Structure to design on (367 residues):
């Protein structure tokens, strides 16, 4: 598969579109774009007008390409040029009735007939991630097409998060693009830089509020008290400790992270990921993330030595941690190592396979 990257820092959407078009050679089959929030409608319409046969999705917020991070700045286009088949679509009404539109994803998968090692479903969603993921998996009914994506983050205060599909902009929706590599494989992975320490104890969620994503009680006690007792962190410092010790939801042999966002007066922990009743919960520990990053890239390059494209989503909390440690540039250089094009998004949450997660990196590597 062949892809191209085009970036513009022009002062207006119109000028940015012209610059991006001048940098792309040929007619893309698919486009994934990131733009200033105020430009998204104009960019969406402009790209579809310029490339009417292309399948296009996009959003705004914080994104990266090569070793650069852009915070709602300019326009970045990842163009899928050849050696692929693509189909984009939208799943609307995430907060109420996504099942109505998930048939569009089902139709796209049926049309492209991908397998679990030559394709990926890449998406951006604005809200209700758990409902989205479970609905998609129910509709696909066992067809093992990898799913990965991110929750839109960085929307200006007081504004609605938006995604774009084929020239139109939506709220309360998921934009997806199914990418089938007709010239090789697609390798997908998730990376977690947190683990369970020897002193970590297993707890049970005994009271939750799914609507608020609130973990009210662990082991029949206020969740904040249990967290404070085990970690030695006071209630007032729990949210600030999220980069060091987030919650881990155990499912089989795997751990899915839930980030704390607020401690209520009653001692509940409101999170960015739902915790279900009777879930097994552990408090995680930050591991040697630099070594984990190196191991992840080494495994990816062992699978696909010279990628034509790396698509990834990194959680805002990973971005925050790496930035605080002056490591983000080095991290991105490792991620792009050996790849023709490397581009990705900083999400408010990540979706991978059957789960919505926090503080995680997900990626697709194309041969």
């Amino acid at each position: 598969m062949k892809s191209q990257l085009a970036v513009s820092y022009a002062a207006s959407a119109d000028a940015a579109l012209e610059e991006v078009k001048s940098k792309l050679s040929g007619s893309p089959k698919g486009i994934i774009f990131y733009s200033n929030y105020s430009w998204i409608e104009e960019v969406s319409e402009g790209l579809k007008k310029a490339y009417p046969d292309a399948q296009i999705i996009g959003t705004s917020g914080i994104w990266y390409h090569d070793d650069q991070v852009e915070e709602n700045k300019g326009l970045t286009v990842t163009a899928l040029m050849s050696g692929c088949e693509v189909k984009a679509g939208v799943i609307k009404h995430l907060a109420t009735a996504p099942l109505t539109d998930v048939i569009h994803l089902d139709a796209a998968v049926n049309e492209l007939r991908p397998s679990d090692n030559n394709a990926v479903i890449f998406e951006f969603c604005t809200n209700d991630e758990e409902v989205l993921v479970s609905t998609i998996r129910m509709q696909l009914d066992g067809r093992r097409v990898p799913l990965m994506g991110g929750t839109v983050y960085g929307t200006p205060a007081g504004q609605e998060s938006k995604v774009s599909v084929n020239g139109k902009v939506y709220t309360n929706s998921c934009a997806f693009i199914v990418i089938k590599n007709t010239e090789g494989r697609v390798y997908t992975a998730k990376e977690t830089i947190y683990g369970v320490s020897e002193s970590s104890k297993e707890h049970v969620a005994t009271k939750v509020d799914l609507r608020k994503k609130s973990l009210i009680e662990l082991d029949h006690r206020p969740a904040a008290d249990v967290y404070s007792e085990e970690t030695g962190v006071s209630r007032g410092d729990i949210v600030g400790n999220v980069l060091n010790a987030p919650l881990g939801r155990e499912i089989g042999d795997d751990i899915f992270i839930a980030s704390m966002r607020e401690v209520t007066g009653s001692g509940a922990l409101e999170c960015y990921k739902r915790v279900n009743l009777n879930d097994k919960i552990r408090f995680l520990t930050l591991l040697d993330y630099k070594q984990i990053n190196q191991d992840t890239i080494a495994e990816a390059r062992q699978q696909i030595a010279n990628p034509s494209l790396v698509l990834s989503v990194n959680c805002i909390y990973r971005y925050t941690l790496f930035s605080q440690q002056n490591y983000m540039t080095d991290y991105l250089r490792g991620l792009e190592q050996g790849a023709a094009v490397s581009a990705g998004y900083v999400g408010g949450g990540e979706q991978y396979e059957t789960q919505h997660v926090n503080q995680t990196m997900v990626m697709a590597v194309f041969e």
Summary: The first strand starts at residue 2 and ends at 8. The mean pLDDT is 96. The chain has eight helices and 28 strands.
